[in-house]
Amino acid sequence: MKLQHHLGGLEGLTEPIDFEKRVFVQDWERRIFGIHAAMMGLSDSLRGAAPNYDLDAVPTAFASTWTWADLRKGAEAMNPFAYFQYRYYEKWLGGITAYLVEQGYVDESALAAATDRYRADPDAALPTRDGAAIDEQVIRYLREGDSPRRGPATPAFTVGDRVLVGDPPAGEHTRLPGYLRGRPGTVTRVFEGNYAYFCSTGADGLGEPVPVYVVRFEPADIWGSRAEPNPGPVFADIYQTYLSPSPAPAQEGDR
To answer: Rounded to whole angstroms, what are the CA distances from 179 to 125, 146, 160, 184, 247?
Structure first.
């Protein structure tokens, strides 16, 4: 969630934003969602999951790590102009394809040949396979998932505390919305438990499991004089890694 990938407070949008209500606009989007779900259900990261998945018993050649973080990294790595050019699942298609080529599961020349074949004959039959065991594993993952909760919460803040959002370096990936960087807010909820993320985000400090909070922000604290009249508050789920105590406001006698 950085740069163009989080629109809160972004200026210069001259055209109205189209809020598409349909989850899937075209049939191929369902398929790319299914591919993503299957890759997550076969991901090597599940070896340490809360449910016990025996990945060695699943006859698949996929032996890499694929999580939501990897999908998001692909989107964040896009050229900003390309990001606005393509629709939601087109970004997924590009990111997943690039990953599979990079990892050696798909050959670029074979991919180009298949693209030409289906472009010439869109109704050509898709490849078939016998993957009952793979399907069973993916369906089990969709039902049981992998809980990010790791033990009891060890919060540094409580409800009502004033906090300040940090401004750490934004590397390959971050879970901190750009428009909240450096902004003060108030803790309104402490989630039950410490929570891990799919990967370490490196320079911005998200790694070990930490508490997560719901933080309330006043629009004037985010956008200043540009905030709309009588706006409602903004709420965001934020990892403790990104928060520090907010300095107390200056008192009249201190000036």
So the answer is: 47, 30, 22, 12, 20
Work out the angle at residue 69's Cα, subtended by the Cα atoms of residues 150 and 195, and round it to the nearest 5 degrees: 15
Per-residue pLDDT of the chain in tens (255 residues, 90 and over written 9): 445 545 555 555 566 667 778 889 999 999 999 999 999 999 999 988 888 999 999 999 999 999 998 988 888 788 877 887 888 899 999 899 999 999 999 999 999 999 999 999 999 998 887 788 999 999 999 999 988 888 899 999 999 999 999 998 877 788 888 889 999 999 999 999 999 888 888 888 888 899 999 999 999 999 888 888 877 899 999 999 999 999 876 555 555
Residue 47, SS3 per DSSP = helix
* Cα distance from N-terminal residue to C-terminal residue, the chain: 38
Two domains, one topology: 3-144 and 162-254: no
Between helix 27-41 and helix 132-144 the angle, nearest 10°, is 90
CATH code for the part of the protein at 162-254 = 2.30.30.50
**pTM of structure:** 0.78
Buried b (16+ CB within 10 A) or exposed e, 144-175: eebeeeeeebebebeeebebebbebebeebbb
Q: Is 32 within 8 Å of 92 (Cβ atoms)? A: yes
Q: Which CATH superfamily is domain 3-144 in?
A: Nitrile hydratase, beta subunit (1.10.472.20)
Show Cβ contacts of residue 221 under 8 Å, excluding neighbours closer than 6 positions.
Answer: 183, 184, 185
C-alpha to C-alpha distance for 175 and 238, rounded to whole angstroms: 8
- The helix/strand/coil state of 168 is coil
